[in-house]
Specification:
Layout: E1 4-11, H1 16-31, E2 39-45, H2 51-61, H3 72-81, E3 83-87, H4 93-107, E4 111-118, H5 125-135, E5 143-148, H6 155-166, E6 174-177, H7 184-194, E7 208-216, H8 225-229, H9 232-250, H10 259-271, E8 281-287, E9 289-291, E10 294-296, E11 314-319, E12 331-336, E13 343-350, E14 372-378, E15 382-390, E16 398-406, H11 407-410, H12 418-428, H13 437-456, E17 462-465, H14 473-480
Parallel strand pairs: 1-2, 1-4, 2-3, 4-5, 5-6, 7-12, 8-17
Antiparallel strand pairs: 7-13, 8-11, 9-10, 11-12, 13-14, 14-15, 15-16
The structure holds 6-O-phosphono-beta-D-glucopyranose (BG6).
Protein name: Glucose-6-phosphate 1-dehydrogenase
Enzyme class: oxidoreductase
Domain Glucose-6-phosphate dehydrogenase C-terminal: 191-485
């Protein structure tokens, strides 16, 4: 049969995401020999640019981070030679038809697959989907479109966006990215659960007291406030990244590893959950803080943020899954910017040992003696299990120790960026790590009512100092369910 080629068009080629993530990920894939033999990369944006200028722009973002072997700069040159640019409007079928002509020059005699990465604001997703599908879709292969959040700001606007896209594309052509699903330790969650006998049998209300999903960044919006202020941390992190991790964590065993089987199980978890209630949410916003002579700005000091903004930069929430496996187990989420540390992790706190023989060794604080499994997604990837252990010696004294799988110590290979995996999967048509539209709908249903309530009532966030551990309200919320945040104890 015919050979095939893939034409990858990055729409919004001069934007931040394209420069920081997409082009570098494409190069890393090329470097590793993961891209198909025949491929072409096009940048598409409104500004006028020549191919040489695009190559120059892209070239500046590429690094040989994989290793410093001698042929890296040759590889870069080879890669850049396969990058081109077309300037056009995002809503012009005519401009996309011109792109189509240019793509065809590279596709002659081959099955021509086309991948569009919409690295643009969502209000023009539908325009581009229309133009690409009417004027620049593949004549004899597949056409796929990658989009990335924000997918609307509530159930209604998200559904409208989905309807808009589906006027021009079928569900199978739409690859919705949640880049957290491309992270190594998130992908490993299923391996950990389903291929180790010691975990899955414990994975239920019978043994697990609570699950904590924690995201923190040690920097604020720093100029990105314009986007952030109309979304806030609940939409930016919880409704997508943390909820996706929760779904993978809590789902039943899928029938197989096929994308549809996995996504069927994930959507079942989401649909088994009650929408988040106001009494189960705490919101915060960072205020200015001076430390060691340096003054860190408040959120509202960001020039792109209105002075009277009540947008949360921090939120903590308690969610519940109403099914046989998880009934009554609190799933606590916490996400915040401008906190004391940068970290994303999953903490699983196990129950007490019934009739623990060593109770007395722990004094009154038995809670501290329960096992805890920590999956540190980033940075410094690790999986560790806190256990009780006898301190060597003649006496009987116990302490807490870790069984520790520290990735940097165990594996020498550098962990690929999430975008590398996701781009490769999109090229290969592997949909496992992409969000299906029913998952997206279910995710919005959980957060839309509370977001509306917070905004209608203009509920003021609790202020916390930049660089702190966040508002104390988060502790009260956890305490209400008898939980202590693992990252703070
Ligand atoms: C994005 C959010 O989805 O994820 C950002 O919009 C956030 O606000 C980012 O900073 C965090 O991603 P990562 O991969 O750096 O943890």
């Amino acid at each position: 049969g015919n050979e095939s080629t893939v034409s990858i068009t990055v729409v919004g080629a001069s934007g931040d995401l394209a420069k920081k993530k997409i082009f570098p990920a494409l190069f890393a894939l090329y470097y590793e020999g993961c891209l198909p033999k025949h491929f072409t990369i096009f940048g598409y944006a409104r500004s006028r640019m020549t191919d040489a200028e695009l190559r120059n722009l892209v070239g500046q973002t590429l690094t040989c981070r994989i290793d410093q072997r001698e042929n890296c700069s040759d590889k870069m040159d080879e890669f850049l030679k396969r990058c081109f640019y077309h300037s056009g409007q995002y809503d012009s079928e005519e401009n996309f038809a011109e792109l189509d002509n240019k793509l065809k020059e590279h596709e002659t005699g081959m099955v021509a697959n086309r991948l569009y990465y919409l690295s643009i604001p969502p209000n023009i997703f539908v325009d581009v989907a229309r133009c690409a599908s009417t004027s620049a879709s593949s004549a004899n292969g597949w056409t796929r479109v990658i989009v990335e959040k924000p997918f609307g700001r509530d159930s209604e606007s998200s559904a409208a966006l989905t309807r808009g896209l589906k006027r021009y594309l079928v569900e199978d052509q739409i690859f919705r990215i949640d880049h957290y699903l491309g992270k190594e330790l998130v992908e490993n969650l299923s391996v950990l659960r389903f291929s180790n006998l010691v975990f899955e049998p414990l994975w239920s209300r019978q043994y697990i007291r609570n699950v904590q999903l924690i995201f923190s960044e040690d920097f604020g919006t720093e100029g990105r406030g314009g986007y952030f202020d109309s979304y806030g941390i609940i939409r930016d992190i919880m409704q997508n990244h943390l909820l996706q991790i929760l779904a993978l964590f809590a789902m039943e065993t899928p029938v197989s590893l096929d994308a549809e089987d996995i996504r069927n199980e994930k959507v079942k978890v989401l649909r088994s959950m009650k929408p988040l209630q106001l009494e189960n949410v705490v919101i915060g916003q960072y205020k200015s803080h001076t430390k060691g002579g340096v003054t860190y700005p408040a959120y509202i000091d960001d020039r792109t943020v209105p002075k009277d903004s009540v947008t949360p930069t921090f939120a903590a929430a308690a969610l519940f899954i109403n099914n046989a496996r998880w009934d009554g187990v609190p799933f606590l989420m916490k996400a915040g910017k401008a906190l004391h540390t940068k970290r994303a992790e999953i903490r699983v706190q196990f129950r007490h040992v019934p009739g623990n023989l060593y109770k007395r060794s722990f004094g009154t604080d038995l809670d501290r003696a329960t096992n805890e499994l920590v999956i540190r997604v980033q940075p410094d990837e690790a999986i560790y299990l806190k256990i009780n252990n006898k301190i060597p010696g003649l006496g009987m004294r116990l302490d807490r120790s870790k069984l520790n799988l520290h990735y940097a110590a165990r594996y020498s290979k550098e962990i690929p960026d999430a975008y590398e995996r996701l781009l490769l999967d999109a090229i290969e048509g592997e949909r496992r790590l992409f969000i299906r539209s029913d998952e997206l709908d279910a995710a919005w249903e959980l957060f839309t009512p509370v977001l509306k309530e917070l905004e209608d009532k203009k509920i003021a966030p609790e202020l916390y100092p930049y660089g702190s551990r966040g508002p104390v309200g988060a502790h009260y919320l956890a305490a209400k369910y008898n939980v202590r945040w693992g990252d703070l104890s």
